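Page header: ASSEMBLY MODEL / two components / 350 residues total.
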Amino acid sequence: MKRISFLIGGILIGCSVLTARPISYPGAWTIMQMNQWDKSWIHVHYSPNIKNSLGLNIDDYHNEGRININVKWNHLLKRRNTRFSQANLYLKSQIGAAQYEDKDNLTMSMAIAGDWETRRYFVAYTGMGEYTKNIDKGSFHQNARVGIAPYVAEYGSLHSWIMLQVEHHPSENQRKQQLIITPLLRFLKGVCLLEIGINSNGKGMLNWVIRF
Amino acid sequence: MKKIGMLISIICLFNMSIILGQAPIDKAENKHKNKQTVKEGDDKTVTSYVEGMVCDFCARGLEKVFAQHAAVASINVSLEEGTVSIKMKPNKTVSNEKITELIKNNGLSVRQIVRSKEKEEKKEKDKEKQSKDDKAEN
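Prediction written out in full:
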């Protein structure tokens, strides 16, 4: 029981932004759970086709005592496939209600995300604008990732990645929260993805994604 | 101290993943070689050369879609070669157009589709041509 509590605790304590593909293959469901230094969130989405995914996103801002419940739509703007690589450009948008001090406030965000990946290298960037009525008059956040696979695994094997993530939150009051660097490890096997790391503020990170 | 412990745990976990991850590669390669052996002379296998297939997540959708198709017996994915080999059930097949459509619907691109029968025919033609050339030289 202690071990289960520790595992659940670890999942909830972690801290980062996950850069997993926001759209899966047609007819697939995806569940992802992750934690940032300011919030924990869970996202469930369904991909009716390769261009779109629609889902529900719940953000728990544990420091502020605020919970956002959003409907999220991810759209693939452009994909470029080559023999050895894949590059994507996504538009992510969400709208919903922010429950804060017993009041529901309108909240919305929009993001542009791009990635390029080979079997050995990975690069990704996300830039996001947020607005929450009475709470956040408009803020901008961005994060980037680079990764390298120490070995190239075949289909069905365990894939491992060494990654470095940089988050930039210019509107944060504290300087140490404006720029956060997270070295992390990513493991991918079958339909499961797991990420662990430690960020520059000394907080652990544990993210997971399951597709089915 | 806690941070160091955490760091060591992560490094150990990562080393383990490399060991665990590399072992199945050999298995996967052997499996692929076996499939290639089975494919010789088999006119019911279609090999699609796919672009953009760089990870398991990319190929997972293809496996699911083709497995649901009534004409497909099994499929074999090779990320190394960028191929999806589709083994058809007896007396059944899937057209190149349909295969292309299914792969494109999964967000990947098709470079080439080769049927094993065509492969064999091409080999025989090449052999015939070679023997004719040899005779002409003699």
